[in-house]
Structures are given as C-alpha cells and as structure tokens.
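Hey,
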Amino acid sequence: MIRFARSRPGARGLPGHPAGVAALAALLFAVPLATSAAPSGDQPDAGWGRWEALDQGLAGRRRVPPKLEQAVEERRADDTELRHAEARRLAKALRRAEARGKGDQRRRGRDSSQASAAARTSEETASTATLMEASLLGAALTTTTPVTAAWLRTGAAGLSAVSVADLAVGMGQTQATIRNRAKGGTLSLTTGGQITPWHFDVANDQVLFAGTAYETFYTDQNAHRIYFGTGKRRLMTVASGAPTQAAGAQTPFRDSLHFEEEKGCANCLKYDIVSVASEPDADYWFWDYLWGGYRDQIQVTLQVPNPAPSGSAQIRIRMRGWTNLVGGDEHQVSAELNGAPIGSTLTWDGFAEAVLVADLDQSLLRADGNNTLTLRNAYAAGTHPGEYLDDVAIDYDRLPVAEGGGLWLHQVPAGVQTVTGLASDAILIVESPTGNAVLRQDARIEPDGAGGWQATFAVGAATDYLVVERAALAAPAIAPDYPVSPSLHDLTNQADYLIVHAPEFAGTAQALAAYRDLDYGIVKTVNLDDIYDHYSAGREDPTAITRFMDRVKQWSRVPAVVTLIGKGSLDHKDRMGYGDSFLPILLTDTPWELAPSDDRLLGSNGAAPFAIGRLPITNDQEGLDYVAKLSAYEGSGPAAARRAVLAADNPDDGGDFHTNSDLLAERLGGLGFSAVTKLYHPNDSVRTRLAESATWETAYLSYDGHGSYAQVGNGSENFITAASAAALSNEVLPLFTALTCAAGNDANPGVRSLAASLVLNPTGGAVAAVAPTGLSLDAEAQTLGNALVDRLFDPAASETLGGALAGAKVDTAGDVSAFMGRIYSVVGEPAVRAR
C-alpha cells in the first residue's frame, strides 16, 4: 500500500523524483520472509527494496530488516514471543533495574561530577584499555546497599500485591525492616506524584494497592513509588462489619473500552511517518488500512464483555487519510457493527485525522462479547484513496460479571450490588480504590449457582469498586530508586561535559566520562532512569529528557557538550520485537515525513547552546570499543598534511553535486588542505572506491548526492552501504559528512544507519559523522555544510565537531529552513576535533 506525502523540489532521498509528483510513497506491509533475506556486501536496501514508480507517487517495498548483532536474549522476532507482551515488558523492567544496580557501586562514594585533571601527571593517567577493564569490572558488580525507595511497575489496571520478601530484595533491606514499616504505616506510595492508598495484608505478608492503567505512545507501564516515610501516606480503611443479608442486584455500570492494535509481525501493517509529516507528536502506528480498488473493506474484532441487554452505547472510530490525490474530500468511510450499519458516512480530505462517532442500541452488541466491526470505503472511479484505522473506543452499559478473575466497576449507584463470574471464594473488594479507599470485608461471598462464586455488598454514594480474586492479584516489577545527590532539580548542579545514558550502558558512560575528564573540568553522567524518576514520575517519556535539559540550561555551570548514549527507535514499545530502543527519540516535522531530532529532544530545536552527539549503541561492548577508537584517533596526533576525499553523485534535478563538490574543494584548499581527491559518479568508480579501506585513510571525507539511511547513492548505485561501512578496516580515521538524505537516521527498528555503521565500526570507518536523519534540501545542505567546514577546519577556532555544527546552524539560521537545523546531527562523540 502506498503512502503519499507532500513533495518539495530538491529532496535528495527521492531518486528519479519527477517534477510535479504529488507525493512520496512507501509500502507498509512486508513481503514474505522467504523473499526478504538480509542483504550482503553491496546489495541494495538493508531493509528497503528499490524505489519504483507506482500510481501517482514513488513506492518501495518494505522488507523485514535484518536484526542487529545482539545477544540471544535480546531477540524478539518470533511471533510466539510477540504474543507474550506483558511478560516481556516486565522482563524489560527487571533488566533495567539490574542494569541500574550494576552501575550503582561505581556511583556510590563519589558524585558523578569529576574534578578536572588538567594538571594530572602521565603516571596518574590510566590508559584507555585500563578504563575499559575497570568499567567492565564495575558492570559485573551488584549493589547490596539499602535504599529507602523503590519503583513498582504495573501494566493493566487492577489490584496489585507486592510481598514483603520481594520489597526487601528490591530495596536491599531486611524483611523485618519492611514488615515493621508496613505494620506501623510508615510507608508512602504515590502514582504520578499523587497519593495512592495501600493496605498491609498481615496474613499474606504483602502490601496491596490499586494499580491504574497508564498507556502512551512510548509505554504501557505505570510507575508507583513506595518509600519510607509518612509524607504522602494514605492507608486503606478496613470495613469489617457483618456481611449484608439484603438481596443484591446485578446493576449495570458504564464502562469505557479502548481498542488499538500496533502490530509487530513480519507481514502486517506497521508505522507511517509520512502521512503525519506536519505533526511531530502524532501517533504513527496504525491498526489496519483501506485502499480504494485494492482493499475496500476491513474487519476487526472488538471484545466487549457482558453488555447489558438494553441501553445505549457509543462507538468512536479514529481514522486518518494516507493519500491526498484529488481536490475536495476524497475519503469516505462507512461502518457496520455485526452486519448492521452504524452512524453516518465519514467524509474528509488529505492526511487529516477524522473520527466516526455513532450512537447505537446495545441490542447490537453480542452477548458473548465477540463483535465484528466492518469498515468500507467509497471513491470516485479511477481514484485510489487510502485510509488508516487508528483505534476504536466504545462506551456501554456493562453487567457486573468478572472477567479473568476481576472487575473494576465504575460509579456503581447506591443500593446492594452483586458481582458474579468469580472462580474462587478468596475475593478482595476495594471501594473507591484510587480515592479514600476502603477494603470491604463486609461483603457476602457465596456460590453463584453456576459453579462459581459471587460477591454482594452494600453501596452508599456512587463510586468505583474493584473486585478481585486473590489468585488474580498482579505482581509489579520492582526497581530500587537510587538517590541522586544533588537532585537533578537542583540548580547548583554543574557540568562542562554531560553524558546522558541508558541504564544498560553504564560501562560506556563511565569509560567516556573517565576519558573526557582529562579535557573537561567537570564531567557529569546522568542515568536515563534518574531523569524519568525526576521528570516523569518514573514513567518512560522522552519529553522528560526535554524538561531535564531545560533545567540543565539553568544550572550554575551549563555544559558545553552533551553526549547521548544508546540507540533510539521508532518502536520504543518493542512491537516488532527487536529490543533496540534504549534512549528514546523525539521526531520533528519536515515537508515530507517525520524525522528524529536530538536537537528537539534536548529542547534546542536547531539552536543548541552546546554540542550534541549520540552514540547509537545497542550493547555496552560497542560503546567501550568506540571509546577505544576515539582514544586511538586523538592519541595519534595531528596529521602531517591534511587530505580530503569528496565523493559526489551525478547531477540531476536534485542538485548539481559535482559543482557543489568543486566549490567545497576550493574552500578546503583555503583551509589548509594539501590534497583533495574527487570521486564523481559516473566517472570515478565511486562505488568501488568508497568500499575500499584505503579511500578512508584521510582526514575528511564528504559525500554529496542522493542517499537513504542504508546507503549513499540511490537504490541501484549503492556507493557504500551500511554493510560495506561495517567491513572497512582503515587505520586513519576521517570525519565524515553526508550532505544527502537520512544517512544519519538510526531510528528504524532492527537496522543500523550508514553513519552509525561507519562510526561504530571498531576496526575502521569514521571517528564521527555529521548526517541528516531525514530528507534534505541540496542547496541548503551546501550552505550548512560550508559553514560547518569553515568552523571545523579553521585553525584559529579549533572547534569540536559538535560545536562547529551548532555554530554552523546559528550562522545559517536565516539561510536554511528551520527543519534542516533540526535534522542534521553528530553521530558519535561530539567533542572530537579535526586532526
């Protein structure tokens, strides 16, 4: 299926881009696995097939991306495993907790800020190899230091139970300490910073609390903080009177359900960052799609349990257009529920979002809960509009029958209520579970006459009730909450060099911090989980990083360099199973598609007051290898004579790449380069030369022309691919600039970008790169690139690569589009300098 987006002349990621083409298109379904083997050598795509003309746009067939080289426990591609999403999420939480623990022993006893060692003697300076060894040793240690707070992570809403034994282990405390505090009520529990009621179940030695659902585009885990103290304590009241003897009624209550599938299988719909190009915070994962003439009907199943036989329900179906082919309202979608038409035809235009709202009689809902929603599109002859199904919500009157061992009843009216469908007589009932919670021990528990059990209880004022079998209590994942001193909120914090790292990569962070401590006065490392703890109440949220960096800009000493450690992915919730999103991304709008932007993530939007770079690693060893590579580069001293290699695509509508490179060669000559080698397609065997390690034995290598995240050159040229870049073995390491499209986009799940492949190659490639994460305009890229080399190679300035890029963005702010500054970034360590 095609995705159509706005076009703009000169975008270099559109090979053969014809004048007047209305859209960029890409297929969102994968070809069968049998035809999608990972490419080798210089074979095209590394995840995408060739672009081809299709209908009124350009299309590319999506292939299953090859998996990164990760440990076997990180693999999540098997469809069977994908069905166990909840278990996987909890496992991830435990792994992150373990990763934090491994780094904790190194953090204790010293602030993560490190005093300058400019006057340190060479005897006091450890070699990089020693630093690596020390970091690996530190990563093998676990902490036994007690903490006084922990995070409890839950999934679906329901009653959770955490045992004293598990809390003791998670907090490094004795069971006696935890038990005494629970008995004495000297524990506080919060969710999102708000008080959460809890109860200590003495008989079962566990703390009970109601875990509410929390689902965003980035996570479906909620975080609850339990800690020593009474500052935000609220104990559940216990109602232990005699059970009511009144007859109960099964009074329906109003329930709201949300349905959304974000599929991660090999041959189904995934994501679209093109149709939402103007909405950087849009949901770009979709459930299913319509396509006029090719896919005119879709059906999805809605599980709506135990509907009341009468009453009125409302359904809301959220759609989005993925084509904009004709004038006027091209999208027309109608809906049926269980074969009966509902609502009016939904009509809208372009890439906008639209919602079909329909009120319906509950007699349409099937008693067994299995409902079929059918969507159909209508269109003019000869047109092929496309629409996505994003999600469905339904409000309905629900009978009080438990499902899966429990039921959360909303606003139960006054009277006597009976809940059936329970499999055991061991039942817990909590009134007003998130308010002034009351543990109701005065309910009548009795057989329901159908082989199960039922609970009957008196209801005063209308409120919520949570009814749960003991066997269905949820067990939250536990992560210790390590104290950070000073707090990340504290404006007295100082840093000249700041490292923000995913908890899995504490070893890399410590090695890089120890290495850069020789050059910068104060080096500070900050664990991503600490940012979540301080700025998003323990929940995974990339905007927490943005809020943290807004605070950093107010510190008493603001860093000159910020390095992010960890790959980010479009699939942060791991729907596709690659497990390769560690430090999240934020996207920015461009004329064609959304693109990752670390400038936006750090709250700078192309005008950062500091150098920014990212090491998109997927395991700690890659990071440690990179620090060794960086050390070797900087330890080799200045080159005797500066040489450069300029590679260029053949001129076309996208730009006159040969002339651009000629002008850049003249500029480099004026900046002290003794020799500039030109490799111009189709004259100079660009593909052969760029695949040779000897070509990269230079101080600076730049490419100008078409490209994508997987290669430079179009799908047939493939001047150098990510796979070829990873195989280079040059000893002299250049700085690399890619004046092309998307060569620095490392956000595609399961694959590595060209720039990242060059930079993270431990035996060659480049020491660092400047590359865009999205489609780029040629003329404006030249303007930005020229400003970059002027700063980077000016002997009087001696700027770092990241500093030169930040300065170039400021210098060219009035001459290039705002999005260009946001998408060009440093892949690698931003404090590296030209040799």
